[in-house]
Amino acid sequence: MIVAKRIRVRGVVQGVGYRPFVFRLAERLHLCGWVRNDGHGVAIHVEGERQALNAFVEALSVQAPAAAQVTDVTVEATDVEGWPDFTIRESAAGARLSVQLPTDLAVCPDCLKELFDAADRRYLYPYVNCTACGPRYTVIERLPYDRPYTTMKDWNMCPACAAEYQDPADRRFHAQPNACPVCGPHYVLYGQGQTVRDSVRAVLQAAQLLRDGFIVAVKGLGGYHLACDAENPQAVERLRRRKRRPAKPFAVMVKDLDTARTIVELSAEEEALLSAPSRPIVLARARRVLPGVAPDNTDLGVMLPYTPLHYLLFYRGAPSVMVMTSGNRSGEPIVYDDEDALTRLADVCDAWLVGERPIARRVDDSVCRVSAFGATFLRRARGAAPLPVAKIPTPRPILAVGSDLKNTITLAVNGQAVMSQHLGDLEQYEAFTAFEQTVRDLLAMYRVPPEEVTVVSDLHPDYHSTRYARQLPALRHMAVQHHQAHVASVLAERHAWERRVIGVAFDGTGYGDDGTIWGGEWFAGSLGEGLRRCGHLRPALLPGGDAAAKVPLQALAGFFADRTDWAADVGRRLAFPERFFTALKLAEKQIRTFPSTSVGRLFDAVAALLGFTEPITFEGQAAIWLEHRARSQPLLKVYPFPWDAKHGVLDYRPLLEAMVEDRLRGEAVGVMARAFHRSVAEALFQSVQRLGEAHGIETLVLSGGVFQNALLLSDVRERFAKSGIDVWIPHQVPANDGGISLGQAALAATVMERAAVEKEGT
Ligand code: ZN
Ligand code: ZN
Ligand code: FE
Questions:
Q1: Which residues fall inside 5 Å of ion ligand 3, going by CB?
Q2: 113 C-alpha to ligand 1 centroid (Å)
Q3: Global pTM exceeds 0.90
Q4: Dihedrals φ, ψ of 728, to 5°?
């Protein structure tokens, strides 16, 4: 008996070879009907024998192509229409799109085989790709994902490519960026007085330049990298000088996993992360020092090649460990436009390896680490964005615009929270422009009219993101406190709407409910009922305001504000530079001085006390210095860092007094740094144990930039082991401000939900 079904498949199912898979499956099972992409994913009408149909439905999720992520298959009975065969139909122009945007994937093994097969027509062709791999988000101009809406629209396929594209049995059936050396884009090398227009020769020449110690700007998937030989200290030093990046670690790209193993220690989990199709940068313990690559750091950020071009460079003899850092000058976002690359990188690089395929949007490399609590993101971008990070049930779309540093935005629509790639520091003009473009992009791609969204921003009135949100023609505007958003992001990614938790945010700075600068906050409650502040770090002063975040010594002076005479004496005995004493005077006279509960500043202050007396040159530098001084040091003591349960205040004064004494006695800096980390973990434990008992709560949530500290996380893990308290940290989104937009969206959704329930009740 012949029956018919209408089937809908949701998830990442467009642009990943899903329709050809369905086609081949139907042919194999002798079923008729059609498959097509629409605004919700993939729609199928299928008819045939009942048994074959059942097998078909089961295979839709079980046998889906590797790059697909099927989240949902719904099946309905329908009328038999008598189709003679099975076909792939044109994409429907749907209403609002609930389809998920596919992300960029590393070149697959099948394509690599062709790349290095001298008999293949794509031999050494740097743009080889197929439905299982290659660019997606970085070439998509709008949805549905079809070639005319991608940056490949200007290249017409040759007969051979077109035949693959149209053959349902082919790996390249509807592979939108499909191309070959005859019909597709090429790479060109500029610089050193030459222009090499042939891809093969351009790559050869670039590899040679890299071997000779030159700096080459290399166009990748989401922007330009600056590449040089990581084992050539002069080249690395030159890159630092030209990029004006004196100290911030560079990531390296290595030829293969074997090479990676020679420069960093890798666990099985780290190797899997490194080799994943998203190919993030993985921070791992360095096995040897590459001079200048990661100063004052015992970790190294490593990634494997992910575009055919990267493989070709190594194949042609490029150094097997290369610095691969964002193509920009320090602090600016990565360059992705060719014109920009040629002008803005002119005094940074010696040559350009320019690919002709345009990049639709700027996407940096993702950065991950395997912490004591498992894999975490430090930066969520290429390969991960714009995948959903959580399910947020909300009847109306929510646009959360995040924080101003490490900005990301989150759009909650059709029950999914889709997070953008890392967009950077909105103070930078280019980053802000990318932010505006990404808001427009995501709204347009999901067909959400701006006037229908609830827009959520940080409570900080002067954030660029807040001001932008306020002028959007949105349905309504909401503001969410920064540290509540940090905690909420963790609950959201676990879909823990009702779970009551103690949430602790240890952070740099964020605008508090009372208008002061927060950054060491304890909350109790849940997403559903709301999070209530129940503790904080004893407020210190920030002499000089924002400047205190750039000069750790200035922060330290702020922690001594109530004992300035004693502090001045300590400063003299430790031969601190003049700015320490100036800051003490500012604090004493309360000039340009603000109270703050920031734990981030406490880490800075301790770093200063232990010898980091220069201004920082990148965010988090002093805390990272402190962490790496402490790594591998023996744990010999724990400093007093008492929690005042009555007032919910963590008092740093006994801690700093003890540390000053140690310092004046000449205790080893590494030993002190080590003890400090454990003391923070111990104080956290004492406070959470008391609060947990008081509130009847057994789950602790940790977020905020301070929890990027791997040593602190491992101390926390040890301290809470067997305590009966579950500790949750963020995994899908970063603990830093990159996770804020998800927390904002989640809190806004629950506030709207509560309002709706209350309305019903009246
Ligand atoms: Zn492939
Ligand atoms: Zn072709
Ligand atoms: Fe923050």
A1: 507, 737
A2: 9
A3: yes
A4: -115, 130
